[in-house]
Design brief:
259 residues; alpha/beta; Ribosomal Protein L15, Chain: K, domain 2; 2 domains; four-stranded mixed β-sheet
């Protein structure tokens, strides 16, 4: 199974052509994407959808992430999941505790500590003496801006974050947290954002390596093409998926011990 990226433009339309999605553009032949081969859909910019196509994705557990043209998250469509139910019920039990916010904050901090150690190792730093995540993030941002302008750096970070939102949605759906079920957690607990924040740290080093490699060949960079960012992201999806699954497994295990 592979993700389907839709780079929206005026006139793009997605319809259901059972058992596939049919994507059409003015002046071009339609393209069919079999639903059984799609893991998730990331739609950027102007993409019109037939309701039946969206429902077909939902029924098959295919998450659809809608991004604005600038790469910012706009909305999610979560499909139904037939897998684990335990995480949702444990999270509901957590929210019944008066001290849930402090407890969950402790768990989130422990995950941030793991991310800090992993990032420090990848940067060749002494794990025990490495600076905070925020300080390392600031330094990496400055390093990116050695190769590209602050505006391009912001575009890169925003675009990759949008792609991470799509992957996080898929991971949560696989864990039993469809949109309907996630609403049971109300707005106090934004697990999707927390998962994206934790996974985002793992992409900093590959981005710097890409920019350094490009600059070594071409000199100063004016921009980075969107297709390059997607290729970089997809190249790291297996690692990101394993990392995301470990994070959710640790969350479930922590909840079992706590509650």
């Amino acid at each position: 199974m592979k993700p389907l990226y839709l780079n929206g433009r005026i006139g793009m339309f997605v319809a259901l052509d059972e058992p596939a999605l049919r994507v059409t553009l003015p002046g071009r032949a339609a393209t069919l994407y079999p639903l059984q081969r799609i893991s998730r859909v990331i739609a950027s910019g102007s993409v019109a959808w037939e309701t039946a196509a969206l429902l077909a994705c939902a029924e098959r557990g295919i998450t659809v992430t809608f991004l604005r043209r600038d790469g910012a998250l706009q909305a999610y469509l979560f499909g139904e999941s037939t897998q684990r139910e335990g995480l949702l019920s444990r999270l509901q039990d957590l929210l019944d505790r008066p001290d849930w916010k402090e407890r969950y904050g402790d768990w989130r901090q422990s995950m941030a500590s793991r991310a800090r150690k992993s990032l420090a190792r990848r940067l060749g730093l002494d794990v025990d003496r490495a600076p905070s995540l925020e300080q390392m993030g600031t330094r990496l941002s400055a390093l990116k801006e050695h190769y590209v302008s602050p505006q391009v750096r912001q575009f890169i970070d925003r675009r990759l974050r949008g792609l991470l939102c799509g992957l996080a949605a898929e991971l949560l759906a696989d864990a039993g947290l469809s949109a309907e079920r996630a609403r049971c957690l109300d707005e106090r607990l934004d697990l999707t954002t927390d998962l994206v924040n934790l996974l985002a740290w793992d992409l900093h080093v590959p981005v710097v390596e890409l920019l350094a490699e490009r600059a070594g060949v071409e000199g100063a960079l004016a921009k980075v093409e969107d297709v390059e960012l997607i290729q970089l992201f997809e190249g790291h999806v297996p690692r990101l998926r394993r990392l995301g699954m470990r994070i959710l497994d640790r969350l479930h295990g922590w909840l079992v011990e706590l509650i």
